[in-house]
Amino acid sequence: MAKISVNEAEITIIKVQEQDYISLTDMANAKEGESRAADIIKNWLRTRYALEYLSTWEQINNPNFKVVGSDHFKMQAGLPNFVLSASEWIEKTDAIGLVVKRGKYGGTYAHKDIAFEFGSAISVPFKLYLITEFQRLKEEEQKYLGWTAKRELSKLNYHIHTDAIKQNLIPKELTAKDISII
């Protein structure tokens, strides 16, 4: 789990099946506060545009996505009595782009592509700051991975190097004491 700061709001990022998922709950909290976060997410989910975006993303990335379930929601989008929660969307369509977690680090999380789109519902500047901070985090992770990879390669190659020195550079007629010095 990682956190980034966007407009003085802490946004949580988790890994789900090696993919980055960003907390929509934290993003909504940045706009209105904790008491209204669920309402902001629900209001965004009930728009036709959001449902079109989610459906298209799922069709591209999820072979088990139930298109019929999403079509049912899209037909109701915009009606005054239509309400949709992230849990209901996931349950009825087998969606993988949204994840609802309960407990200490609970909330609604979305794949980074979807979270960036949700950022527009918060505000355009917020979305741009979110993308910038996320990219900064990924660059930092890559720097760390580069260092770790070099360290692991050195560790793996250590015995190869020492064995090569023993076999090729140390004359066989030396004593054990001389060899240890070399």
Structure description:
Pfam families: KilA-N (PF04383). Residues 1-137 form the KilA-N domain. This is KilA-N domain-containing protein. This protein is α+β, with helices and mostly antiparallel strands. It has two domains: 2-141, no CATH class; 142-181, no CATH class. Helices cover 62% and strands 15% of the residues. The protein has helices at residues 24-32, 37-45, 48-61, 67-76, 86-93, 112-122, 124-168, 176-181; strands at 2-6, 9-16, 19-23, 98-101, 107-111. A five-stranded antiparallel beta sheet has the order 1-2-3-5-4. A hairpin with a 2-residue loop joins strand 2 (9-16) and strand 3. It is elongated, with a radius of gyration of 26 Å. The chain starts with a strand and ends with a helix. The mean pLDDT is 86.
Rounded to the nearest angstrom, the distance between the terminal CA atoms is 47 Å
DSSP, total strands: 5
On the 0-100 scale, what is the average pLDDT?
A: 86
Order of helices and strands: EEEHHHHHEEHHH
Radius of gyration: 26 Å
- What is the overall number of helices? 8
Catalogue the unreliable spans: none
Strand line-up of the largest beta sheet: 1-2-3-5-4
Strand content: 5-15%
What structural category characterises the helix and strand content? alpha+beta
How many structural domains?
Answer: 2
- Percent range for helical residues? 55-70%
The major beta sheet can be summarized as: 5 strands, antiparallel
Shape designation: elongated
